[in-house]
Write a structure and sequence with these properties.
The complex is a heterodimer of chains A (240) and B (304). With 240 residues, chain A is of the alpha/beta class. Chain A has one domain: Rossmann fold (3-Layer(aba) Sandwich), CATH 3.40.50. Helix content of chain A is 38%, strand content 28%. In chain A, the strands form two sheets. In chain A, strands 6-7-8-3-9-10 form a six-stranded mixed beta sheet, sandwiched between helices. In chain A, strands 2-1-4-5 form a four-stranded antiparallel beta sheet, covered by helices on one side. The two termini of chain A are 34 Å apart. The N and C termini of chain B lie far apart (54 Å). The longest helix of chain B has 31 residues, at 2-32. Chain B has helices at 2-32, 39-59, 65-92, 102-122, 151-173, 175-185, 187-192, 197-223, 230-245, 250-270, 276-290; strands spanning 127-128, 136-141, 146-150, 225-226. In chain B, the strands form two sheets. In chain B, strands 1-4 form a two-stranded antiparallel sheet. In chain B, strands 2-3 form a two-stranded antiparallel sheet. In chain B, a hairpin with a 4-residue loop joins strand 2 (136-141) and strand 3. Chain B has a domain at 23-232. In chain B, helix 2 (39-59) packs across helix 8 (197-223), helix 9 (230-245) crosses helix 10 and helix 9 (230-245) packs parallel to helix 11 (276-290). The chains are: A alpha/beta (240), B mainly alpha (304). At the A-B interface, helix 2 and helix 3 of A face helix 6 and helix 7 of B. Bound molecules: adenosine-5'-triphosphate and magnesium ion. Magnesium ion (MG) is lined by residues 43-44, 86, 161 of chain A.
Chain lengths: 240, 304
């Protein structure tokens, strides 16, 4: 099977603090792969490392056969990676439309109308709010916008950092449904970081568990869901 | 009444010059949160470029005014923009990500360097320029006082209006302006949508310098004398204008420039000319006491 992303021995530091301690993982084309782990495990750091926002001290990140470990962020995005980041990071003083236009930076908005229609189909709420400023949207709407914005560049690999964080359960279901649709209809490879391990493992083809900056377990979604260690650490009270 | 109208005309002219410089301060502050103390000196350099350009064209026997002004304007915009780019590249970019005061100190150093460089290269003495654009209209004549509106004042105000309108449209409507605003609001996210943040920052310096260069040419034509020190006072006034209007806000910079020009002119006209610089700063202090974000500045509305 062709690999979209291969990460080997990745180590990342913030000053003297080591955040990633030799991460190894791979993502195949067309897969949904999820990464679960406790607070501070290094999940967001891994996504930012893939995007070149945090520089790796050692190890390699290879995207479709190309080494991107030392590339700059905008070059990596140009190559087809996109991220819906932790905390959503909507441009607060820009409208929903402007946020989406910025999402289409790498293709100079060449497919803008077509892609906006797809995003609005996925999240009709955004259509109703299109001229509203990003900073005034609700948390759930911001999350939809963050995902929509990430899709506007027509990515090959979509990285999502905790899209269900701080969002009402009914919206969480809607967002997970949308992730499934993006994978099926747009054939986007998805790497999903989640605290909501139950939903994520149900949706994903495969999963990784991160502890303390390194991968501690891997398997298919249903395998991991069945493991007692996973259930104890990440699903207590969360399986609903 | 006539006297008042004359001061209004003079104040708006001066305010246009300050406003054009103020945009450079406010944009750089907006995008990297730094006061570019060398910006006033970029303005000063542009006035020298314009002076040298004019003298060369005079020497070549060119005297058709529209061509002369346009040629010098374009030449000065390009060369000054290049200076702005170089300053960012060598004095600020290497310090990005270092401690907060580092670029500020570097900016003060760059300001001193530019002043000394021009002082050595061009001499410290005042450089005069014979009037290039002369003549005008007499708007009112009451016998003992006439209200003059010179052609030059018209050129200055109209050109400023055109530039500010064009520039506002660039920022609010084009992809480039959107990318610029994205970098202001969240630099990491801007990079994550594929914007080349370093290039956008460079461009901000280039645009700021180009606008300041227009102010430099106007200053040269309006006052007819320049020296290596003009950037200091004009820079501080324009910076004051930017803070008065609300640093980071474009309409604020334009409004602030206009107000500082008017305050300074009216103060000199009705009170004493010695304290005209103090007047502008006093108003600034007053405004900041009651509105710390400046007249049009908004407090951050970021939602956590
Ligand atoms: N900018 C930073 N500077 C210093 N340390 C940081 C920085 N960002 C993260 N860290 C540290 O790196 C470690 C990993 O953080 P990271 O944000 O990657 O964890 P995470 O798995 O995403 O956690 P969460 O589930 O809470 O989002 C933590 O110990 C954190 O304190
Ligand atoms: Mg995180």
């Amino acid at each position: 099977m062709a690999e979209m992303l291969i990460i080997t021995g990745l180590e990342t530091f913030y000053g003297k603090i080591q955040a990633l301690r030799g991460v190894d993982l791979h993502i195949n084309k067309g897969e949904i792969v999820t990464l679960i782990g406790a607070n501070g495990a290094g999940k967001s750091t891994l996504l930012m490392s893939i995007c070149g926002r945090v520089k790796a001290r050692s190890g390699a990140i290879v995207l479709e056969g190309l080494d991107i470990t030392k590339a700059q962020t905008h070059e990596i995005i140009q190559m087809g990676v996109s991220q819906s980041p932790e905390g959503r990071r909507i441009f607060p003083r820009m409208t929903v439309m402007e946020n989406l236009q910025l999402g289409a930076t790498t293709n100079q908005m060449a497919y803008f109308d077509e892609d906006v229609a797809k995003v609005f189909d996925l999240f009709p709420r955004l259509n109703e709010r299109k001229n509203q400023r990003g900073g005034t949207l609700s948390g759930g709407e911001q999350q939809m916008l963050a995902i929509g914005r990430a899709l506007m560049s027509r990515p090959k690999l979509l990285l999502m950092d905790e899209p269900s964080l701080g969002i009402a359960p009914i919206l969480v279901r809607q967002i997970f449904k949308a992730i499934g649709r993006i994978s099926k209809e747009e054939h986007v490879t998805i790497f999903l970081v989640e605290q909501n391990a139950f939903h994520a493992l149900k949706l994903a083809d495969r999963g990784y568990v991160m502890v303390n900056g390194a991968i501690s377990m891997t398997g298919t979604g249903s395998e991991l869901l069945a493991r007692p260690e996973v259930r104890a650490a990440y699903l207590e009270g969360g399986a609903h | 009444m006539e006297y008042f109208i004359q001061q209004l005309i003079n104040g708006v002219t001066l305010g246009s010059i300050y406003g054009l410089i103020a945009i450079g301060y406010t944009m750089v502050y907006g995008i990297i949160g730094m006061i570019n103390f060398a910006h006033g000196d970029i303005f000063m350099i542009s006035a020298f470029i314009a002076l040298i350009g004019l003298l060369i064209l005079f020497g070549a026997g060119i005297s058709w005014l529209p061509f002369l002004l346009l040629a010098v304007l374009i030449l000065s915009m390009f060369l000054t923009a290049a200076w702005g780019w170089v300053v960012e590249r060598i004095a600020y970019r290497p310090l990005r990500g270092s401690f907060r005061l580092a670029p500020l100190i570097s900016a003060i150093g760059m300001s001193l360097f530019l002043q000394n460089f021009v002082q050595i290269a061009q001499g410290a003495r005042i450089k005069p320029l014979p009037p290039v654009v002369s003549g005008g209209f007499i708007l009112m004549d009451s016998g003992d006082f006439t209200v003059n509106l010179s052609y030059l004042q018209i050129v200055i105000v109209v050109l400023t209006l055109v530039l500010m309108t064009g520039f506002s449209l660039l920022i609010s409507k084009t992809a480039l302006g959107r990318q610029q605003r994205a970098c202001e609001q969240d630099r990491t996210m801007a990079a994550l949508v594929g914007i080349n943040v370093d290039r956008t920052i460079s461009l901000t310096f280039v645009i700021g310098a180009a606008l300041a260069s227009v102010a430099g040419l106007m200053f040269l034509l309006y006052y007819g004398v320049i020296d290596f020190f003009i950037g200091f006072l004009a820079g501080i006034k324009a910076f004051t204008a930017a803070v008065l209007g609300g640093i980071g806000s474009l309409p604020g910079a334009m409004l602030g420039g206009l107000l500082i020009g008017l305050i300074e002119t009216f103060w000199s006209a009705y009170f004493t000319i010695e304290y005209k610089d103090v007047a502008a700063f006093s108003i600034l202090v007053l405004v900041l006491i009651f509105r710390p974000t400046g007249l049009l500045g908004q407090p951050e509305i970021e939602k956590v």
